[in-house]
Amino acid sequence: MTPPSETRRFEPTRIQLIVTGVVLAALIIADFSVTHGHTGLAGQPGIHALIGLGAGFASIVVAKLVKALLKRPDTYYD
Amino acid sequence: MTELLLHPGAVMLIAALLIPMAPAALRAILLVGAPAIALALVWQLPDTLATAPSFLGMTLEPIRADALSRLFGTVFALMGIAGGLYALRQTNRTELSAAYAYMAFAFGVIFAGDLITVLIFWELMALGSATVIFASGTEAARRAGLRYLAVHLFGGVLLMAGVAGEVASSGQVTFASMLPDSVPRALILAGFLINTGAPPFSSWVPDSYPEASTTGMVFLSAFTTKTAVYVLARGFPGAEILIVLGLIMIFYGIFYGLAESQPRRMLGYSIVNQVGFMLVGIGIGTELAVSGAVAHAFAHIIYKALLIMAVGSVLSATGRQTFSELGGIGRQMPFTALCCIIGGLAISAFPFTSGFVAKALVSEAAYQEGLDWLWLLLALGTAGVFLDVGIKLQYFVFFGPDRGLRPAEAPLHERGAMGFFALLCIGIGLMPGTFYALLPVTPEYSPYTTDHVLLQFELLFFAGLAFFVWLRFAGWPLGRNLTLDVDWLWRRPLRDGPLRTLEGLAGARERIADQLLLTKDRIIVWAQRVDGPVRAIAGSHPTGRMVFFTIAILAAILIQELFFT
Q1: A31–chain B nearest CA distance, Å
Q2: Range of B564's domain?
Q3: CA Rg, chain A, in Å?
Q4: Judgement on whether residues B525 and B538 belong to the same structural domain of the protein
Q5: Residues A27-66: pLDDT tens digits?
Q6: What number is the ipTM of this complex?
Q7: Closest Cα of chain B to A45: distance in Å?
Q8: What is the rounded CA–CA span in Å between residue B391 and residue B157?
Q9: SS3 state of residue B439
């Protein structure tokens, strides 16, 4: 049996969108209002959001590239 | 020497010998009881033997117990208890016996005070762990086990050469802190690194571990890579090459993990990724950084085993092991899903879990050393891990659309093992002070400051946002495939190459033989032409002509006798 191959998608509900938006906004606001224990790069307000978002998209894009270049059928070595 | 019987490894080895012949009830007691006794012995063990044995004129130190070895001993024993409980219904005695022997040898390495003892147990561990893989009995496992053994025996050879060189040049067998500043020490480091899954030999982890049984992979995940972390923390703190290798491992694990189509292989990549963080800590080399690395190893053994147990229970319950065949089973297996999510949060360094209090130490050490770029890369790596094991794994296994799978919840003993480790993940996260006190050097650090917790949430949530935005707009194709790795070299050209060369050589031999035969025939033909029965030299001649030549020769002799003597 060949296992199914498909593209999984995600359709958020309105509630999920609102809750996500509120939480993320609250985190950003809090970030800009607390005193940071670190100085330099690690102490920049908002840097953690940027790192998270950047790492998230970059990891996915690189993983897609790895897949595009190096993906082989499961039976490649058999 | 009777103290050797107090060695935690001795108890595990006795259990390994008894398991094959024990009836089911006794086997269950051995599986959980032996590591529990080992746990007590880790703390009872004398710091060293009263009389040191000697071997080939070298004084050995088969037992050296200090804070670092007791820390690893503790988590190894905890792993044995949970792993044994999880494997309670495993009827494959070969696998269980091999797994317990493998654990015994791992104890042997961490309590070894000299390089010879380390080397002996190191090699034995390779054999024990390979047997666990072979024991799963499939053809794929047999082949993966052979590849595993080849890589590890190669590492063992490097280590042996290094130890021999080190002992010959320094005359010392004590296993102490060193730097890779000579060829033997570089060889020792290389031998250790192969077991961590460092490049270019990273692929052995995702290649071999998932081929073991569901219970076998739980044992395998804990000991080989973590004894390697232990020996590096003991032997090479501050070796800067570890930072570079660790960073490569961190991102390799994330990228390959995100590209992977099977949960168990993905967790294999994740082991490489996590050990990468530990290598970075050891490479930084400060007290805080090395403490962070070993704290991370301790926490990682627990949450990674938890994840592997959960995914193993899913495999046992559904018989399916690709993301494309799974999904939506969180409702049927709520306890397993909850434990897997706790493991996923812990590995992602989510606040209030063990990963948060352990991983923060290495990042903090990088920050304190003024290595802002390293701090940034570690933060990027942490966010990547959340995307990988924290979200992708959980989402595609337990959430998403219902595929009509109706698996039963994991059996009680599996839930017990998972519950135990899930509680430890949270307990360590909530009591960092107690956990830090176990470390060889208790760090002066408090992970729970308002800004640290807040910023960690910010980092992780925004990484999660990236995943769901991508899933919403681009979608995530799921199929069944593998990703080429460096091992392609020895699974294709280096495997097929020698075969083809041998075939080529065999062909060449035949061609050369044919050529020789042909040449022989040609020589005969040529000789016959020159010297055959009808030719000048060997041909037959009339008697008269022969008499003429005879007379001519006799006349020549006569003339010579008459006139020239």
Answers
A1: 7
A2: 532-565
A3: 20
A4: no
A5: 999 999 988 888 888 888 899 999 999 999 999 999 999 9
A6: 0.92
A7: 9
A8: 40
A9: coil
